[in-house]
Amino acid sequence: MSSDTRILGIEGTAWAASAAVYDCATDDVVIESDAYEPESGGIHPREAAEHMHEAIPRVVETALEHARQTHDGPETEPPVDAVAFSQGPGLGPCLRIVGTAARALSQALEVPLVGVNHMVAHLEIGRHTADFDSPVCLNASGANAHLLAYRNGRYRVLGETMDTGVGNAIDKFTRHVGWSHPGGPKVEAAAKDGAYVDLPYVVKGMDFSFSGIMSAAKQAHDDGVPIEDICFSLQENIFGMLTEVAERALSLTGSDELVLGGGVGQNARLREMLETMCDQRGADFHAPEPRFLGDNAGMIAVLGAKMYDAGDTIALPESRVNPNYRPDQVAVTWRGESKRSEDLEPDAGRETGTEQGAEALVDLEPDAGRVRKRRESKGYRHPDLDDRLRRERTTLEARLTSLARREGVPTPVLSDVDPLEATLELEYVGATDLREGLSVERVRDVGRHLARLHEAGFVHGDPTTRNVRVGRRASDGSSGDAPRARTYLIDFGLGYHTDHVEDYAMDLHVFDQSLVGTAPNPDPLRAAVRDGYREVGDERVLERLADVEGRGRYVTA
Ligand SMILES: C[C@@H](O)[C@H](NC(=O)OP(=O)(O)OC[C@H]1O[C@@H](n2cnc3c(N)ncnc32)[C@H](O)[C@@H]1O)C(=O)O
Ligand SMILES: Nc1ncnc2c1ncn2[C@@H]1O[C@H](COP(=O)(O)OP(=O)(O)OP(=O)(O)O)[C@@H](O)[C@H]1O
Ligand SMILES: [Fe+2]
Question: What whole-number distance in Å separates Cα of residue 159 and Cα of residue 340?
């Protein structure tokens, strides 16, 4: 940033009472923090609030003192241009103390207030320190875990945890085994001497869930499995899941930049996996220095400065805190024209040669009417897990692709499968991916197709706009009045049999998120998916979908 803006930032959403001064001219960030460490158990909201009450005035005073000393204007001038604070998400009692302190300071110093979304700050600090243009952001913090990408003035949630945040999941396990909070660093240390044991691994499109793996880990501990092995395997699976969905997000958006944010981002194994994944696919990876990863006011001050420079300040009546403030609720005012393009553009579809998906390399041979798909070994994954996933998914893809066609859903005909080599040979279908050919009619078809699968008792598992092929091949010579082109579902490797309404709703939710993440005007498309689904499927699934979407997952547990 080229301005000479100076901002005081205040953070206190859960455990870190923190204040910082950011000076745009020098790009210096000075942070003063005081951590709350629970005597036993996890974070108690009331105790955390008491900590904020005590520590916030102290850290703010230290930061302000620094601001005064480094201020070279007249003494009558305030030492900073604005006060930025974490407005949410976080623990209500903590947020209110921070909000009150920020309002008081802004009045005393006679400078404006800037209300910062803590999650957006976790990702903007990485974009700032990396100087990336339009990265995909993986936020791995205590109370949250999600993938975000910028599109049309907002950070869109491409994928997220379906239950607890990643740090909280780990902390609950360590509480179960009697270790003190926070557990993440202890798991990291114990994992150094561990060996791999099988644990659940759950991703659904770009969403994921930790409840299954955490119960299995607790059970393994109760059954006497060595703690080092559990810690090692927890890291391999949990971070493997996060890395896999991050790769899927890169593939879906066509971005070649990834940034990491959040307290769990301090974990060296997670960073190593993300780095390896990005290397393997030719993308750039950046993790900010550790002081910017865990909760800290530096990230609040830096984003506060960008917002202030964009004129994004708030009046007192708008300054109420919001414990459930979602990142996609923030109107992004501070991102000008980007160097490459306003929005992320997916890779243009190549119709011959080799296509790199998130999981596989696909050789396209449209003239021969076939494709060969090979699930490549992933260097970031533990070899045992890698073998297991590649085999399981290849077998499932073969089985469910055929099963779906028997249920009347267009899919490629399978000509060969080799689970050991993780390869498939399939019919070449469609003319382009749905991503390049979105229309209301086509997504309505997808709604019908998904309903047919669900009526037959299974889910696709990863129904994104890239996993739908549309249109005829040019050689079909179809024109104007010809029957409407078909809409094919491909890539069933994450599918599974289930009779749970929740799983069906999640399947729709995954498709919905891919529309929101990639379509310029998603709302009519989202309505059409539901219309198509309603024609064939069960209304209860749509009701559950509304429920899935309405769930406030941004609650510190
Ligand atoms: C809403 C806000 O209050 C919340 N903040 C938060 O959760 O604190 P954060 O500093 O981002 O993350 C703390 C988590 O980060 C984990 N953690 C810290 N060091 C770790 C390490 N080396 N390996 C794994 N986890 C680690 C801790 O166990 C803890 O669960 C959030 O951002 O979700
Ligand atoms: N049967 C097919 N006919 C035509 N094109 C195909 C076919 N299968 C795959 N493709 C093309 O290759 C791309 C990648 O294939 P696929 O989705 O199966 O791989 P993947 O690595 O599992 O991808 P991802 O996990 O990113 O969805 C598809 O988006 C599509 O463009
Ligand atoms: Fe955080």
Answer: 24
